[in-house]
Amino acid sequence: MNNEKKVVTLTYGCQMSERDAETLTEISRQEGYVTSNDLENADLIIINTCCVRESAENKILGKIGDLKKLKDKNPNLKIAVSGCMVQQPGALERLQKRAPHIDIWTGTHNLHEFSGLLHRSAAGSKVAEIWQEPQETIESTPLAEKGKLQANVNIMYGCNNFCSYCIVPHVRGRERSRKPEEIIEEIKSLAANGCREVTLLGQNVNSYGKDFDPPFDFADLLREVDQIPELLRIRFITSHPKDLSDKLIQTIASGKKLCEHFHLPLQSGSNSILSSMNRQYTREYYLSIVEKIRDLVPQATLTTDIIVGFPGETEEDFEQTLEMINLVHYSQAFTFMYSKRSGTPAATMNDQISLDVKKRRLQKLMSVQNEESHQLRQRMIGKFYEVLVEGPSKTNPNRLTGRTRGNILVVFNGPQEVIGSLVSLRIIEAGSWTLVGELETTE
Ligand code: SAH
Ligand code: SF4
């Protein structure tokens, strides 16, 4: 129907940000909009922002600027900007000045108010509503979309860690865990609607439930989720190394659907940098956890986040980071150049590193990691892996694609019927980026 109102949502940043974008889209749907990808013909555009690095902010500012053209063409178009960038202290005024064509500004703590904001905007006023603090743990808006194979589920909000480079605790507030029964209920309802894989989300899932009295352990939550019959797989991110418990490692070792993948952000391999980052672990401690994981869950994959060019990082510090890549054997590393975030302690530290040095270190880091990933994929050749089939491959729609329990992408030739189910694949080829498998049996 042509008179349907269309909403297009663009989201930036982490999975938690993506989940927030889904909530805003869902609320728009409840308000009568249908989802669309067609920016030119949209009636409502939502830009859900990220501010973790300056590069993300610049990209988003560019996009917000571009949308002015659409607003000039269609004055009835509503544009809403939400999320972390707007939530930064003092950011709203600056943004409003820069982008007067935006109709609705909103932050990270009041997603559930979005329908009210849409109504106020429809009545003709510009709207800006940011809560400085979260007022309570507000329950996620359940997603009505059926047949979605994978879903992200927030188990907690916020972060207490204050790593010295990071803006997240400043825009997402302190840790608040959702009640286990609410989480289980949300997952059961997703599973009843066709979802087969959930990823439990938190900035540090290992401190889930520590804010309850009595505390509730993350590993116990995983055990409960593992009992939900229709689910095939359970993942979780992110694990702060300082809080990863033996119980969690044992739980992953003994769980049925708990995927053997740990995303364990290292950030740096140098103790002096880890200390000025306020990460609260040493490289030796980190390696001791890796050893425990390798002992108890030998098939586990490890992935990580690493920052190069943190203030004061010397060549020796950087060499120690490179060394960790070769010691841990990550299957994948998300690598970043340090980016100054105003209001964080690292932004005013001495010895900021030049862009040239950061770029050189990033290149080197990426090439060392690429070699590790390549070797890891080579070692997979000839072996069998359980893969949850997600659908046609993006690069070659004639092939299907899915992920191993360790979260490694595999493409293969197979019938459409296996989409959404677990198959066993033998790895037959490992290119620079793609792993090719061959279908063996269907479960
Ligand atoms: N809570 C998660 C990660 C949140 S942000 C954790 O602690 O693991 C995702 C990643 O962005 C971080 O792990 C870090 O590597 C990177 N990051 C955060 N702030 C950054 C900054 N100021 N500059 C560069 N990278 C940053
Ligand atoms: Fe940021 Fe550190 Fe919290 Fe992760 S743990 S969100 S890096 S402050």
From TrEMBL:
Monomer. Its EC number is 2.8.4.3. Pfam families: Radical_SAM (PF04055), TRAM (PF01938), UPF0004 (PF00919). [4Fe-4S] cluster 1 binds at residues 14, 50, 84. One of its GO terms (cellular component) is cytosol. InterPro entries: Elp3/MiaA/NifB-like_rSAM (IPR006638), Methylthiotransferase (IPR005839), Methylthiotransferase_CS (IPR020612), Methylthiotransferase_N (IPR013848), Methylthiotransferase_N_sf (IPR038135), MiaB_methiolase (IPR006463), rSAM (IPR007197), rSAM_horseshoe (IPR023404). Residues 145-375 form the Radical SAM core domain. Belongs to the methylthiotransferase family. MiaB subfamily. GO terms for molecular function: 4 iron, 4 sulfur cluster binding; metal ion binding; tRNA-2-methylthio-N(6)-dimethylallyladenosine(37) synthase activity. It is an enzyme of class 2 (transferase). PROSITE patterns: MTTASE_N, MTTASE_RADICAL, RADICAL_SAM, TRAM. Residues 5-123 form the MTTase N-terminal domain. Binds 2 [4Fe-4S] clusters. One cluster is coordinated with 3 cysteines and an exchangeable S-adenosyl-L-methionine. Catalyzes the methylthiolation of N6-(dimethylallyl)adenosine (i(6)A), leading to the formation of 2-methylthio-N6-(dimethylallyl)adenosine (ms(2)i(6)A) at position 37 in tRNAs that read codons beginning with uridine. Its cofactor is [4Fe-4S] cluster. It comes from the Bacteria. PANTHER family: CDK5 REGULATORY SUBUNIT-ASSOCIATED PROTEIN 1 (PTHR43020), MITOCHONDRIAL TRNA METHYLTHIOTRANSFERASE CDK5RAP1 (PTHR43020:SF2). Residues 378-441 form the TRAM domain. It is found in: Cytoplasm. Its main location: cytoplasm. Keywords: 4Fe-4S, Cytoplasm, Iron, Iron-sulfur, Metal-binding, S-adenosyl-L-methionine, Transferase, tRNA processing. The gene is miaB. This is tRNA-2-methylthio-N(6)-dimethylallyladenosine synthase.
